[in-house]
Structure formats: structure tokens, C-alpha cells
Amino acid sequence: MIVYLLRRSAFLLVSFLIAMVAIFVLLRLLPGDPSNALLSVTATPEQIAAAQAQVGADRPVLEQFLTWFGQLAQFDLGESFISSLPVGPEIAARLSVTIPLTLISFAVALVVSLVAGVVAATRSDRWYGILISGFSQLGVAVPVFWVGILLVSVFAVGLRWLPSSGFPRDDWADPADALRSLTLPIVTVALVMSASLTRYIRSATLDVMGSDYLRSARAQGSGYSEALWRHGVRNGAVPVISILGIELATTFLGAVVVESVFGLPGLGSMLLRAIEQHDYPNIQGVLFVSTLVVLIIGFVADIAQRLVDPRLRLSISGNR
Amino acid sequence: MKKHTAFVALGLATTLLLAGCASGADSSSSEGASAIEIGSLYEPQNLSNFGGGGQGVTEAFNGNVYEGLYKLTDDGSVEPLLAESETVSEDGLTYTFTLHDGVSFHSGKALTSADVKASIEAVLSEDSQSARKSSFSAISTIETPDDATVVVTLAERSISFIYNLSYIWIINADATDLETTEDGTGPYTLGEWTRGSSLSLERFDDYWGEAASTDEVVFNYFTDATALSNALLTDEIDIVTSVQSPDALTQFTDNADYVVSDGESTTKEILVFNDRVAPFDNVDVRKAIYSAIDTEKLLNSIWGDYGTLIGSMVPPTDPWYEDLTQENPYDVELAKQLLASGGQPDGFEFTLDTPSYDPHPVVAEFVKSELAKIGVTVNINTISSDEWYTKVYKAQDFTATLQEHVNDRDVVWYGNPDFYWGYNNPQVATWVDEAEASATTDEQTEKLKLVNQQIAADAASVWLYLYPQIVVASSDVSGYPVNGLNSQFFVYDIVTE
Question: Best label site of B70, B165, B306, B384, fewest CB within 10 Å?
């Protein structure tokens, strides 16, 4: 296990370094001049020069990369080209929206899909079992922002139950107020995420139900529910845990997308604006943090899988 | 079956919990109902107006948090603000300003002439990004003989000097960190700025003039126009500063709960020719294009009953406006004749560099279909705003393009032959210079009217239409500005019934 942990950590570090270089290089390959975002249609030649100097776009690419990397090593994400404000604190502030949104949505999606997935598998002959399967098929095909727009027009504009957009100015000072603003976004993300999760859990449950070990347990006299609970859950959990990591990462990306629909001051709206303005330090900062989050989720999911499944734990070479 | 009942119960419990949160929040949010909530699409980048703060910081801060020696009122006239009076020397080169008494900054420091000097110098500094920098090139020295007096000497006459001063914020010379904080003299101080979300202003109790009407004003920022309209529909905001999408208006125009104000803007939609290159170096060809486009139909198809037709670069709020819409009338037969006399009887083909954001793509399609009627083929080349600056503005590598020009009093750019559109008429350049060197505003107005007439006669560009400036507000709110010249939005008189 320790050998595996070390290997898996090395893998994490290497993929992280590769991702950093890729982010930097791909951004520089994009056509466009970041200093243009600072100009107006009456800019004079001196102002154009001043703008170029401010963004440092006139410096060699290698020098820019080394500066950025050097700062990163000191946990400094640099300063925005456009606003000249430090990137790190802004990301931290915006994570206070994106992280709760991601985690709560994921938890809700997980609870909903566990229930729905098991019901859809065990009651696949009933109308509600078929209905759940149908809805989960549909849910996978629907884009998350569209669900957001739909929910806003029904629950905010139509029924006036919840705010259509925005987040309290005092952040989480009043948690009830903050949660109220997050309710529709959470429902949106959770709804879409639970669709694909339900499908996984349904098929994992079906696999377990058709398995030989379950039949043997039944033959030895245990009841159906008892057999499913004692033997089925642990076996069925292995494939589900392995996709939970990916699903959590997808939830994070879904949260980033719905932020602009709901006008939430999260990471997603920050990224969209930064891309529009070619604000490289902001783009790099957001991508850096999101890559880190996704890689760490994958890392934790792999470890968790080994803890649950003794077969993987015992084989040293058992990583992919 | 028992299990299912448990699931249903769990679901119900969750719903009730959420509903409980929701109703709890309802009561708490009504406490803060005294604040005026404003919705806008223009969030400041930072809080400095010469370090790339952009349109958003002007909207939120100009006249509200920061004040100038003069102010540009909502109807376009210039009035003294922090300057109590001024005297101008006989030769028009020396301006002596006396500052208002008893003005203090939000930090408590009293305003002195040193602050005024430092504020002007900051705009002129080498790394200044201020869009107004070039209008102060005539300044030669700034002196401060005493705390209440500022003497500015100009190298040459500049009749717009006082007007230009209305753009310079007077900032405490000792203030630091102006990108995230402020120290101005206005009726409001900065409350809290949550980036990506909102910026609040709080009444400054020691304000030297008439106190602001409302304790707190909040600018809420949106990136999506639909989300902005939804917020107004659901009463989360009271006012939208500038509606940019005509489609959104229908939900408010026939609704007694809202007031739609049709104000004056200074934003012109322009079909810009590169006047240096063939075939647009020929006046008749340019006039042919102008006469071939039904601008009235274009404006109507985009904005319905809103917006104004213009025949030159000058909007009605500029002092030198005159109606020149008949200088290049819509007349397809005339257009064909002009095309022939311009040496292009069989028409020609050109590329129209079109910025990818609204309304330019729609305008480009319209222009293309209109010009097809006189045998001119338009190839639409869609480019990003970033490419526009690189290709069209800096490299001047284009035949024709579309662009909106937002500022007032900007007809003077036709006097600069190096400007991107390359209009080069020495007579016009002379008039522009003479206008700036005028001794009186009447003389300035007279010269600039000549400029208008000449550029219209030359069809230097096609001025398609003037954007409307539409403010939508709840009907129980009043006292807001309707014209929003240069993105200003004075909030100190806004009240709720």
C-alpha cells in the first residue's frame, strides 16, 4: 500500500507539471494581444505602448514562463493584466461560492441517484422504475445551462419562490441567505448530475443482482434484502466509487458553467471574463486551481477504491 | 413498501428544510429594503479611471464618489463643482481656479490645491491609461500659490479645457491603493466591492454640498442580459442603467410597474471606410454607398421606435449639432449614378471587417443586402474585438469596418489624418485646430459646424444611427439620470416612494 501511495503521488505530481506547461503554452498559442483589452477607440500610440508594457506581453515567452513558474513555487499566482490586482485572493474569494455549490450539489445528486438507481434496478418491471430509467436517459442528454434557464423561468420569474440570480453581498455571513441564492443552482447541477449517476448505480445494482455470489447467499438461506445488503453493497460499490471521482470533477465543471446563468461570483464567471479579455494571469490561475482540484479528486478516489477492495489493495502493480 | 415510505418522508423533510431556509431569508432581506439596487452589465476592472478601470468605474464613481473641478450634467452642459469660480487671462492661456470652501475627502483630509495639481498630473503621467490624456496636451505648468488657488498655464489656447476638466477626478494626493479603495470628495463613499457580484455605495455624512437622498446604493453586476432582465422582473433590482438588447424591452413597455426612459446617447454606429485605399479614396463612391443604405429601415429593424438617425458624427447633445440627415439621402438611383461617376459603373467587391458582438453582425448583413441592389458585393469577415484592435486600429489594414464610437464631442477625430479611418482633408484639420484655439464657445461652435458639414459632404464615413439610451426602472423609483452621457450615472438624487 505504501509503495502504491508513493507511486500514485509521483504520478499526481508529474501530471500536474505537464498540465501546467500545457496551460501556459496553449494560452500563448491563442491568437490575440492581451493589451488590446486595455484600449479604447481613441487610444494614442503612447497609450498603446503603455498598455503593452503593463501586460508585459513585449517580454520573451520563456521569460514570462519562468517568472510565472517561479511565483507559483512561492504560492503566488501573480497579478491580473487588466486590473493589476493579485489573482490568488480573488480565486480564494470565488471558491467560497464554487466549492459549496459543488459539494452540496454532489451530495444531493448522490442521495437522489442512490435511491433512484436502486429503485430503477430492483423495480425495473414497475412503471416508476421505467420512468426513472427514462428520465435518467433524458437527463444525460440535456445541457446543464439549459436546465438552469428553465428553472429560473419557472421558479424565479414565474412563481417568485427563489431569487433569479446573484449572491449575498456579505457572502456567508447569513448562511440561510446564501443557501437561498444557491438553491436553484444546486438543484440545476444536482438534477443533471443525478441523471448520469443514476444510470451507473442502476447498472451496478443489476450486476450485483444477477451475480453468482448473491445466488449462493440466497441458497444458504439468507433473505433477499439481507443478501443484497451484506454482500451486494460492498461489491457493487467498487465500480461506483471509481466513477465517483470523475463525477465529482464533472460536478465541479457543471458548477462553473451554471455560475454565469445565475450571476454567481464564482470561479466560472471569473474564467469566462478572463478569457474574453485575454487576461493570462487570471486564466492561468483559475486553470491551475481547477486542475489541482480535479487531480486531487482522482487521487483520493483511487486510494478510496483500494481501501474498499482488498483485491486491489494486495496487488502491488494493481494501478492502471 | 415500507422502505419507499421512508424515502418519501426523507424527500419531504429535505424540501421542508429548504423551504424553511427560504422563508427565513425572506424576512431578513426586507430589513435592507432602503437601499437602491441598480443592475448593470459593466463591472469595474478596478477602481482607478486611469489604470484600466473601464466604463464600469465611470458609471459607479463619476460624480458619486469622485468629483471634478467641473461636472458634465445629464443634459450635456458643463457646471462648476469643486471649482467655485475661474478667471481666464486675456490671451486665453492662464486659468486661475478658486476652490470651493470646506470640502473634505472621505478620509477626513481637507481638499487643497496640491490635491488638484496631483490629480491632473496623474492623468498626464507616462503610464496613464486615461482616455482623456491627449486632450490635455496643451498644459504647460500647474501652480498652487495658496491652498485654495490653482493656476494652470497653457502653451496654446484650448477652448475645451474647462469641459475636459470635468473628466478629471480630484483625488487625495496622499491616497494609496486606488485600485481597490478610494478617497474622493463625492456624496457617497465606497461600501463594499464583491468582485464578480456587486459594489455598494454609502452616504458620506460630511459631504460639502447637498446630501445624497438615499443611505445606500448598490450596483449589481451581470454578465448576461437575460439574467439582468429577470432580476428586474423579480424585484431584485430597481433600475437597469442601460438596456443593450431591444428584445428584453417588450416585457417592460406595456407594464405599469415599470418605466422605460428613452434618453439621449452619444454612441454612434458607424460604417467606417479606409479613406486611404481604393475604391473608398473616391468621394463619389463613398457617397454612393451612403445613399444606397436605408438607415431608417436599419434602425427600425434593430431598435424599433428607439434611437435617432444622424447625418454626421455629431449627436444632438453636442453644441455644434445640426440636422444633416439629408446630405446623403437614401436614394438607390442617385447611388447608382454616383457609383458610375466615381468610376465604378459595374460595381465592385470589398471586405467588411465586422466585430463579432452585437449589433455589428446584424448591421453587416443589412449593409450587404442593401449594397447588392447597386451591384456592390460585400464579403463579411467576422473578427473578435481583439483582432479589431490589432488589424483595423493599429495596423490600419482594412477596406471597411463597423464600429461604435461612444464619446461625445468626438467629431474632432476627423481632423487627425493618422487616425485609423484615414480621412485626410487639410481644410477640416485646420478648422478643428482653429476651433480648439477659439476665444469664445460661439467661435468654436461655428468652426465645428463647418467640420460637420464638410465630413458629411465628403461622406467620410457612413453614420448609420445613434444608439438609444434606455433606462428601465420600477415605477416607484425616481431621480435617476436618463441620458447617461459618457457612461455617467449620478445616483445621489434617486429615491423610492
Answer: B384
- Of chain B, the end-to-end C-alpha distance in Å amounts to 57
B54/B130 same-domain check: no
Burial (0-12, 13-18, 19+ Cβ within 10 Å), B96? middle
For residues B86-105, average pLDDT: 94
pLDDT digits (tens, 9 = 90+) for B394-430: 999 999 999 999 888 899 999 999 999 999 999 999 9
Task: Determine contact: B134 vs chain A, CB below 8 A.
Answer: yes
Rounded Cα–Cα distance for residues A302 and A10 (Å): 14
Residues of chain B neighbouring A183 (CB-CB closer than 8 A): 18, 21-22
Taking only the tens place, the pLDDT of each residue in B285-328 is 999 999 999 999 999 999 888 999 999 999 998 899 999 999 99
Nearest by CB to residue B236, choosing from A39, A153, A166, is A166
Decide if the complex's ipTM is over 0.90. no
Please report, for chain A, the start and end positions of each structural domain, with discontinuous segments joined by +: 88-279
Q: How many residues does chain B have?
A: 497
> Do residues A196 and B48 lie in contact, with contact meaning Cβ atoms separated by under 8 Å?
no
Q: Do residues B286 and B259 both lie within one domain?
A: no
User: A150-190, pLDDT tens digit by residue?
Assistant: 888 888 888 888 888 888 877 787 888 888 888 999 999 99
B76 is in which domain, residue-wise?
70-165
Q: Structure pTM?
A: 0.83
Residue B199 β-bridge partners: B193, B219
Chain center to CA of B469? 10
Q: Say yes or no: B107 and B155 in one domain.
A: yes
Residue A262, classified by CB atoms within 10 Å of its CB into exposed (0-12), middle (13-18) or buried (19+), is: buried
Positive or negative torsion for Cα A134, A140, A141, A144: positive
Hey, are the CB atoms on A164 and B180 less than 8 Å from each other? Answer: no
Residue B224 DSSP symbol: -
Domain of residue B133, CATH code? 3.90.76.10
Question: Which residue in chain B has the smallest CA separation from A119?
Answer: B4
Three-class SS state of B496: strand
Q: What is the CATH number of the domain that holds B448?
A: 3.10.105.10
* Residue A176: strand, helix, or coil: helix
Please indicate if any CB of chain A lies within 8 Å of the CB of B229: no
Element (H, E) at B297: helix B295-303
Q: Among B165, B189, B224, where does a domain finish? A: B165
Residue B97 has pLDDT above 50, yes or no: yes
Q: How far apart are CA A167 and CA B218, in angstroms?
A: 13
CATH top-level class for A88-279?
A: mainly alpha
Same domain, B119 and B254: no
Does A94 lie at the interface with B, CB-CB under 8 angstroms? yes
Beta-bridge mates of residue A149? none
Whole-angstrom Cα Rg for chain A: 24
pLDDT at B491 over 60: yes
Cross-chain residue pair B389–A261, CB shorter than 8 Å: no
Across the beta sheet with B198-203, the strand order is B188-194, B198-203, B216-221, B36-40, B239-240, B462-474, B258-273, B400-405, B349-355, B377-383
Interface of A with B in 140-169 (CB under 8 A): 149, 152-153, 156-157, 160-167, 169
A–B: how many Cβ contacts below 8 A? 153
Q: Please tell me the total count of domains within chain B.
A: 3
- Put simply, the chain A residues between 215 and 254 with a CB less than 8 A from any chain B CB are none
DSSP class of residue B128 equals -
Same-domain check for residues B398 and B459: yes
| A233-261: average pLDDT | 83
* Residues B254 and B299 reside in one and the same domain: no
What's the CA gap between B294 and B285, in Å, rounded? Answer: 16
pLDDT of residue B5: 41
Alpha-carbon distances of A169 from A177, A264, A265, A301, B134, rounded to whole Å: 10, 11, 10, 35, 38
Shortest distance between the Cα of B12 and any Cα of chain A, in A, equals 13
